[in-house]
Amino acid sequence: MALTEAFVRLYDAGLVYRKEALVNWCCSLQSAILDIEVDHLHLTGPTELAVPGYSKPVSFGKMWDFPYRLADSGFAEV
């Protein structure tokens, strides 16, 4: 209870706030992880990598274009 009260006081004083930034999310742990826990890879092009929990390699570094319709728009496809 004391921890919650201290947190609320800090929040009310403007000392604790949510930052708008990317978060390293671990799907296995279902939790955010520290940047130091992330293995950063520099990819120079499309690459297939083994990912825990997947039986086949997963493709990374690919961009896909596809048309889609906008609701209540005069355009057929964007």
UniProtKB/TrEMBL annotation:
GO biological process: valyl-tRNA aminoacylation
Residue span(s) of domain Aminoacyl-tRNA synthetase class Ia: 2-40
Top-rank lineage group of the source organism: Eukaryota
Ligase among keywords: yes
GO-annotated molecular function: ATP binding; valine-tRNA ligase activity
Gene Ontology cellular-component annotations: cytosol
Record carries keyword Repeat: no
Pfam families according to UniProt: tRNA-synt_1
Segment forming the signal sequence: none
Regions that span the bilayer: none
Family note: Belongs to the class-I aminoacyl-tRNA synthetase family.
Identification of the protein by name: valine--tRNA ligase
Organism lineage: Eukaryota, Metazoa, Ecdysozoa, Arthropoda, Crustacea
